[in-house]
């Protein structure tokens, strides 16, 4: 099933990765109508849906370090797996915060005063040792899982609250917005891409992945976090790379949008478990845990692409790829190799590179996250601390 083997070097494979991205975007030039957000900083965790430069700082030949990544916004590659901004960037704009500094690129605590981004492309909720024990090829699985990202965060918090540590760090936590994810899809992807059994090995991971996210959520709450966004995973059956990986001759395997039913069902299974977990987390009434429905957001865009300026025929096709039915025949869009299959106008496409979304799609999703369409409950505005 995986088409990776055609990619020769381990480095390149590592790039590949994993992260599927769907994010969301908020209105950059149009601050949320409700406006008036009062958060003084934002901290994010996750994978390539959210990574704004961590992976490329230790892996300078990763795909996101080359054009055409970044061609629409920034005008050059930044380490983001998109042609431009991600949901986290649109959120920062809406909150009137600077774009978050990628943790591995920050030099002093001051770089993180308004926030930090700990997300690493291809990273997982479960620790790397889990994948090692399963005998998976680790070249594409970075040792920066959720627990590691949390340890990084604790270090940053400690350096920001240097004097009256206890009180200062509680204050910082209370005034910050946390974006916990998307994280978890790579735990599945690494298995899928290495031909592991869905029933025997992948599906049973769900409770373990959710438990890791639960732990991370509790750790932040214990440190004093009051407002946290926790995204679900997108409909995997609508992701070009998966459509290419699992072709079926049976028309009944596809829904009327052309997405793989069994994979979308799997995404729902994960998201349902995530929701159950969030509802069950013990917390006081001052803590708001907000589920972000990336699943419904993506589906809605795919259902009526024209509504947001996308073309119907490109709804399930990557803008940048190396050909094949979904233009997602190999794992990444990367500069020279793909020039012939780079679409002229990414804003007409939903999928950027077969795994991650275009800035235009992230923007639509982010707008829905901010206006409450895809956030349950709505992100509190005004000063709640
Ligand atoms: C919870 O997260 C912390 C990181 O802050 C980690 O050290 C700990 O092992 C995690 N516990 C579980 C049960 O995953
Ligand atoms: C997965 O299976 C496909 C088809 O059998 C094969 O071409 C590919 O090399 C396998 N990939 C891995 C990582 O084992
Ligand atoms: C959908 O997922 C549920 C929960 O895992 C499972 O019981 C059911 O068999 C799945 N249905 C299909 C069509 O895959
Ligand atoms: C792309 O082509 C340019 C010019 O031919 C070359 O300098 C560069 O190294 C190539 N990049 C990749 C990723 O192959």
TrEMBL record:
Keywords: Glycoprotein, Hydrolase, Signal. Gene3D superfamilies: SGNH hydrolase (3.40.50.1110). It comes from the Eukaryota. The keyword Signal applies. The keyword Heme does not apply. Residues 1-27 form the signal peptide. One of its GO terms (molecular function) is hydrolase activity, acting on ester bonds. InterPro entries: GDSL, SGNH_hydro_sf, SGNH_plant_lipase-like. Belongs to the 'GDSL' lipolytic enzyme family. This is Esterase.
């Amino acid at each position: 099933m995986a088409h990776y083997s055609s990619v020769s070097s381990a480095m390149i494979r590592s790039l590949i990765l994993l992260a599927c991205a769907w994010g969301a975007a908020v209105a950059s030039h149009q601050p949320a109508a409700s406006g008036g957000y009062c958060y003084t900083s934002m901290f994010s965790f996750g994978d390539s849906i959210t990574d704004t430069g961590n992976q490329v700082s230790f892996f300078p030949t990763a795909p996101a370090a080359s054009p055409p990544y970044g061609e629409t916004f920034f005008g050059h590659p930044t380490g983001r797996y998109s042609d431009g901004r991600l949901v986290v960037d649109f959120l920062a704009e809406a909150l009137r915060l600077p774009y978050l500094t990628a943790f591995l690129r920050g030099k002093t605590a001051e770089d993180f005063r308004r926030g930090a981004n700990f997300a690493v492309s291809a990273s997982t909720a479960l620790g790397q040792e889990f994948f090692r024990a399963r005998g998976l090829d680790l070249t594409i699985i970075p040792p920066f899982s959720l627990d590691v990202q949390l340890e990084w965060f604790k270090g940053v918090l400690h350096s920001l609250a240097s004097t009256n540590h206890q009180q200062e760090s509680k204050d910082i936590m209370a005034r910050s917005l946390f974006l916990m994810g998307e994280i978890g899809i790579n735990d599945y992807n690494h298995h899928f891409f290495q031909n592991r059994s869905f029933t025997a090995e992948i599906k049973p991971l769900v409770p373990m992945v959710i438990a890791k996210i639960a732990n991370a959520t509790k750790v932040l709450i214990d440190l004093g976090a009051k407002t946290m966004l926790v995204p679900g995973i997108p409909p995997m059956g609508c992701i070009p790379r998966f459509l290419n990986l699992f072709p079926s001759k049976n028309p009944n395997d596809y829904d009327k949008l052309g997405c793989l039913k069994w994979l979308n069902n799997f995404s729902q299974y994960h998201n349902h478990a995530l929701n159950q977990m969030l509802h069950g987390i013990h917390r006081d009434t001052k803590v708001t845990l907000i589920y972000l429905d990336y699943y419904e957001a993506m589906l809605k865009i795919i259902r009526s692409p024209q509504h947001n300026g996308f073309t119907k025929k490109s709804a399930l096709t990557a803008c940048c790829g190396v050909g094949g039915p979904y233009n997602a025949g190999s794992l990444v869009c990367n500069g020279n190799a793909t020039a012939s299959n780079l679409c002229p106008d990414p804003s007409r496409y939903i999928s950027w590179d077969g795994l991650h979304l275009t800035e235009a799609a992230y923007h639509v999703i982010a707008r829905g996250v901010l206006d409450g369409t895809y956030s349950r409950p709505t992100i509190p505005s005004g000063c709640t601390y």
